[in-house]
Amino acid sequence: xxxxxxxxxxxxxxxxxxxxxxxxxxxxxxxxxxxxxxxxxxxxxxxxxxxxxxxxxxxxxxxxxxxxxxxxxxxxxxxxxxxxxxxxxxxxxxxxxxxxxxxxxxxxxxxxxxxxxxxxxxxxxxxxxxxxxxxxxxxxxxxxxxxxxxxxxxxxxxxxxxxxxxxxxxxxxxxxxxxxxxxxxxxxxxxxxxxxxxxxxxxxxxxxxxxxxxxxxxxxxxxxxxxxxxxxxxxxxxxxxxxxxxxxxxxxxxxxxxxxxxxxxxxxxxxxxxxxxxx
Length: 279
Hints:
By secondary structure, this protein is mainly beta. It is built from 1 helix and 22 strands. It has one helix at 241-277, and strands at residues 2-7, 12-16, 27-28, 31-32, 39-40, 45-51, 56-58, 70-77, 83-88, 93-97, 104-106, 116-118, 127-135, 138-149, 153-160, 163-171, 176-180, 184-185, 189-192, 198-205, 213-219, 225-230. A 9-stranded mixed sheet has the order 1-2-5-6-14-13-8-9-10, with no helix packed on it. The longest helix is centred in the last third of the chain and has 37 residues, at 241-277. The chain is elongated and about 125 Å long.
């Protein structure tokens, strides 16, 4: 599905939305195709989200090979030296400068296909990728602001009496959490990790007994997910499964000791009774 934005004298912004497979190319029929939420500016720069552990193919402008002089890919990743991959048609020669990531390669030989492949996509591949096509008529370029997406792990549990906790672990970007029905919720907690992922936690409480089941709905660029839980009236919990297990074991051990003491007391009472009968 194609959605055209408004055209102004200074800028044309096109939002293209299409569902593509995780390993498919972002080019099709000579036109630039992008995944959902991609945006193309008039300057040829594309905001491109890509799911981690998939295969991404970034495309150069479509220029006839006979008109090419040099193809250059510039790769700028945060915390790393700028990498340059180039191909000079006249000499049929490829050259690389500061390129150490073996997952970033030409799709094929540059004389056959100028596109760049990242396989598999890692969280460290966030960055800017630009293809420059040098021709006798000037340079043509296309740039990608690549955003790597990470699907969060979602959990839902009841921590104490009629209070539920929904948690999304290590997602990128941060997930959004909502509840059905709405409850009395504490401020959402966010924990940022060094690799750019975010853990989000939402805690809500429901008074009374009119609500028996609650649903946690998680919204994320990688896909939405809903989990539900039945609230148990009178349940008391520490919020820590390990601590809850220790409490249960302590209670059971205490009951066992009490039963053992009562049994011993009854046993010794019977022995004393028998002794008294034989005197």
